[in-house]
């Protein structure tokens, strides 16, 4: 199982800290999973210009092909201006419309206050649904008060991360069984 985590911003540290906690939990619970954390702040991603995702080179080509090859994707996003950052939206724009078909996608959102908890519902989930993702309905929302000295200090957040990881992997396993049964139904 290939799991790709995305820290979807080029500024700040809270989303990356959250995604590192997610990836650590995956390693603890599912050590056989093939995982990669993509930190957009460490890469040089070009703006989408409408090309096929396979035509991009460098960091852009690396990220697009990594996402297309993934079985599950966990998207970490900060909340900027009550929406997702442009850097994350650009990643979606680089991919084909059905890029997330047969992929399990779950989400972690960070924000300064609880006022932005619906950003995932209003902005991110519609994009993922349009791109044909199988979306894990619950997500982890982490506020400013849940961090102290670049660490997540809220035990409930750690519990929700653990549950998100379990839901993501178990949903993939269930969907994989269904997919294999459908394929086996064809005689050729």
Automatic annotation (TrEMBL):
Keywords in alphabetical order: Flavoprotein, FMN, Oxidoreductase
Domain NADPH-dependent FMN reductase-like positions: 1-143
Matches recorded under Gene3D superfamilies: 3.40.50.360
Pfam families in UniProt: FMN_red
Single GO MF annotation: oxidoreductase activity
Superkingdom, natural source: Bacteria
Protein's recorded name: NAD(P)H-dependent oxidoreductase
Organism of provenance: Perspicuibacillus lycopersici
């Amino acid at each position: 199982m290939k799991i790709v985590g995305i820290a979807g911003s080029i500024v700040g540290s809270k989303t990356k800290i959250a995604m590192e906690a997610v990836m650590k939990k995956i390693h603890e619970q599912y050590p056989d999973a093939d995982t990669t954390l993509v930190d957009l702040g460490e890469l040089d991603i070009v703006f989408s210009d409408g090309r096929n995702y396979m035509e991009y080179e460098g960091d852009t080509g690396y990220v697009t092909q990594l996402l297309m090859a993934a079985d599950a994707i966990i998207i970490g996003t900060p909340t900027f201006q009550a929406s997702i950052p442009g850097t994350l939206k650009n990643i979606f724009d680089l991919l084909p419309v059905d890029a997330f078909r047969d992929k399990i996608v779950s989400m972690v959102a960070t924000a300064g206050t609880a006022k932005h908890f619906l950003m995932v519902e209003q902005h991110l989930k519609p994009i993922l649904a349009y791109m044909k993702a199988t979306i894990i309905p619950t997500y982890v929302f982490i506020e400013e008060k849940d961090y102290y000295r670049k660490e997540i200090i809220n035990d409930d957040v750690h519990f929700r991360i653990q549950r998100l990881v379990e839901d993501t992997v178990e949903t993939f396993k269930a969907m994989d069984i269904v997919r294999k049964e459908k394929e086996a139904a064809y005689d050729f």
